Amino acid sequence: MIRMEDDVIAEWALPVDILTKLLQKITPKTAARCSCVAKTWKLAAESPILKQRIAQEQCLRFGDTEPTILWEGNANFHVYCVARRCNLIALGGEEQIKIWDMEEASMVHFSALEGRQITTLCFIDGLLFSGDSDGHLIGWDVETNDQIIDVKTHTRLVQAIVDLEDSIACGGGYNTDVKVISKEGWTRGNPSERALQGHTMNVECLVGVPKHNLLVSGSGDSTIRLWNTDSWECLTVLSGHGAAVLSLYKQGNLLLSGSLDSRVHLWDLDALGYYRSLNTSRMVAAISVKGSKVVSGSDLGHIRVWDMEEMICLRSFKVGMDTRGLWLDEGKLLGVSGDGHIYAWDFSS
Fold first, then answer.
1. pTM summary value
2. In the chain, fewer beta carbons within 10 Å around the N or the C end?
3. C-alpha separations of 318 from 94, 256, 303, 334 in Å
């Protein structure tokens, strides 16, 4: 352990970037005292990392006030995964899928799969796609509840699904490959398939970035891979998380990744490199972005709102249990917890 005596610190002449890293190991109060001793410490103490840490401690201590609830629904079952399209929120759980209509403020029973756990959901081309514990990718007609497409993509557990315009990509919880299924041939019942290999552990999350012709995959091996959707080659591997990458979100030229290591990393898609980081103090199971605001949700229902430009926590509150989905709209925040509750909070101020 480093002992930081005032008379020793005053004689240090370390570069500001090194001192900034040291600041992460001490309390804001100690850092403030150090900044009064030497000019170099003062420069380091003004770093974004320290500001974020001070704001985070204030947020965690004083900001645990839940915003006003506009409305609340209950799916009455344990929710494992969610997807949203306009006013519809789909929820998947043990052997069933339900849909909440926000305009009607009511839950509609949608479909059942006996003996299967619904592990991921995604709205694509007017259909609702589900991945389940048997490794099947199923496309449902939302109006009729009919199964339009049924493809077995993995031996077990489809963990993530994303639309890539001409194809659909999916990742498995017990498979290190990303499977890409061509939409051509579905009507003939013979869609073509390719496997993208490179991850060394299960694929947890996927997101498409059409502007950059990219498919992005996050894995239990703590890395993020960027795949070119024309050549299907891996362009680069983003490393920086200390544990499994659980969630991905794209915002303009930025990619946000949430991890079991409790951090949200921001990546520059133009430079294909690291940009900055937020420390949420909890594993990050869901992310949503609107403008400069970032919302992160954890496994224990902790929800935090961040200013992406200032890198500070604006608000912190806790609801329900595990966070399954978050969507930050104009004036409101929508959220789904693992106990089946659906919330709409007032975020107009």
1. 0.80
2. N
3. 25, 22, 6, 14
pLDDT digits (tens, 9 = 90+) for 6-31: 333 444 455 656 665 665 555 555 65
List the 203-209 sheet strands across, edge first.
203-209, 214-219, 223-228, 234-239
| Cβ-based neighbours of 5, under 8 Å, separated by 6 or more | none
Reported as a single tens digit per residue, the pLDDT across 194-244 is 999 999 999 999 999 988 899 999 999 999 999 999 999 999 999 989 999
CA distances from 181 to 164, 196, 210 (A): 10, 11, 17
Q: Is 189 exposed, middle or buried (0-12, 13-18, 19+ CB in 10 A)?
A: exposed
Instruction: Extract the tokens encoding 333.
Output: 């925040």
- And the tokens for 180? 């890409």
For residues 90 and 121, the answer to whether their CB atoms sit within 8 Å is: yes
Query: Count of CB atoms within 10 A of residue 159's CB?
Result: 23
Report the DSSP pairing between strands 254-259 and 263-268.
antiparallel
